[in-house]
Amino acid sequence: MTSKLPPDLLNLFSPRPPLPYAKPLDKDIDKRKGPQISGISSFIDLLKTEPNPNYSPSETPIQKKERLNYQVSERDLKREFERYGPILAVKLIKDKAGNSRGYAFLEYENERDLRVAYRESDGVRIMGKRVVVDVERGRTVKGWLPRRLGGGLGGTRIGGVNENHTYSGRYDPAVNDKNPPAPSSYPSSRVISRKRDYSGPDSSRDYKRERGSSRGDSRSRPSNG
């Protein structure tokens, strides 16, 4: 059919010339040889580290001073604190070598005995060392936050040397506040003046009664002349 077209129209259907050959810049991805990728199992041994047997976590001087004597046993603690009431359990915290860490946990059978021990035993000496006695707050106080989250009751990192907690015993911010608010910031006492309402049906009678009592008081008042 196209053979019967005139030459000027046949030129419109003629194929284009082939593209010139260009040398490829890179090898075929199937023939390319790159670095060999292997697993990391051969490097696991290089990442193993032995724990330092002499590692000692950072502690403040107050924590070092107000800890239990390392010679204190659970029996000694029970004998010392059962004077306030029957004890349910005593747990002395020890390290991997079985040595005391300097603190322990006691559980009383009655909450009343716990309150007495909390109030009376703070700062007592056990085998020549004063101890700090406190209660658990993480599971007992609603909304409690530890020191690392901005809460806590510790007083060893308040500010400078003259502001930090340096004596034996617990630190209570309500008692040990060294910067009390200015007197102008305290709430002033409220003076409430109450006035009788004389809008009721007996208003005139009550009003006359009160006026009469006030006049009687003024008349009976002695003069200074």
TrEMBL record:
GO molecular function, one term: U1 snRNA binding
Protein's UniProt keywords contain Acetylation: no
Xref: InterPro entries: Nucleotide-bd_a/b_plait_sf, RBD_domain_sf, RRM_dom, U1_U11-U12_snRNP_70-35kDa, U1snRNP70_N
Start and end residues of each stretch annotated as Disordered: 1-36, 153-225
Coiled coil: none
A Pfam family this chain is assigned to: U1snRNP70_N
GO annotation (BP), single: mRNA splicing, via spliceosome
PROSITE patterns linked to this entry: RRM
Keyword Ribonucleoprotein (UniProt): yes
One GO CC term on file: precatalytic spliceosome
RRM domain boundaries: 68-138
Subcellular location: Nucleus speckle; Nucleus, Nucleoplasm
Biased composition (Basic and acidic residues): 24-33, 194-225
Keywords carried by this UniProt record: Nucleus, Ribonucleoprotein, RNA-binding
Main location: nucleus
Descriptive protein name: U1 small nuclear ribonucleoprotein 70 kDa
Source organism: Smittium culicis
